[in-house]
Amino acid sequence: MKSMILTAVLVSVPAFAGPFELKGDAAKGEANYKQLCASCHGEKGDGTGAAAAALNPKPTSFADAANADRLTDEWVYKMIKDGGAANGKSAMMVAWSGVLKDDALRDVAAYVLKFKPAKAAAPADKKPAKK
Ligand code: HEC
């Protein structure tokens, strides 16, 4: 009886009780990125797609270190899934949840996150430049 209760508790704890887990596969997201996103965000994720010039605000450069802190797994997933308007950003960034299944949304998010520059060392970690 005790174990039944325990099982029931474990099963009913919702996934979102814990930290967000993207679980996307960047390799699988690449084709969708190139087809659906690169026109604005650029093949290299630097925000210089062919359509970017006409847009204001500009499509985000995922490769710019200045944006890296904002581009968490959860935020990137939410922006792709629900679009800019739902998240207080430009409506030019549409919601892709009607186009891509959840797995595919996660995969393309994982691909986007690969453009992020490697995390810069925190100032405290920086050794004073000698020479
Ligand atoms: C029509 C052009 C366009 C297309 C196509 C497009 N985006 Fe965007 N996207 C934008 C713009 C513009 C913004 C910036 C919104 C803002 O800053 O208000 C944006 C923002 C984002 C953000 C949020 C980044 C941030 O600055 O916080 C993510 C993530 C994103 N796009 C991913 C994607 C992905 C993945 C695709 C393809 C499935 C895609 N976008 C397709 C225009 C586009």
Could you characterize the architecture of this molecule?
The protein is an all-alpha fold and 131 residues long. The protein has a single domain, classed as Cytochrome c-like domain (Cytochrome Bc1 Complex, Chain D, domain 2). The protein has 5 helices and no strands. Helix 2 crosses helix 5 and helix 4 packs across helix 5. The N and C termini lie far apart (70 Å). The mean pLDDT is 89. The site of heme C (HEC) has 23 residues, from helix 2, helix 4 and helix 5.
Classified in CATH, the superfamily is Cytochrome c-like domain
**What is the number of strand segments?**
0
Computed Rg? 19 Å
Q: What is the CATH topology classification name?
A: Cytochrome Bc1 Complex, Chain D, domain 2
Which whole number gives the mean pLDDT? 89
- H and E string: HHHHH
CATH class category label: Mainly Alpha
- Percentage of residues in DSSP E strands: under 5%
- Structurally, the number of domains stands at 1
- Small ligands present: heme C
Alpha-carbon distance between the termini? 70 Å
Q: Which architecture would the CATH scheme give at its second level?
A: Orthogonal Bundle
The backbone outline, from C-alpha atoms, is: globular
Helix/sheet category:
mainly alpha
In the predicted model, the low-confidence regions spanning at least 5 consecutive residues are none
- Biggest sheet features: none
Helix content: 40-55%
Count of separate DSSP helical elements: 5
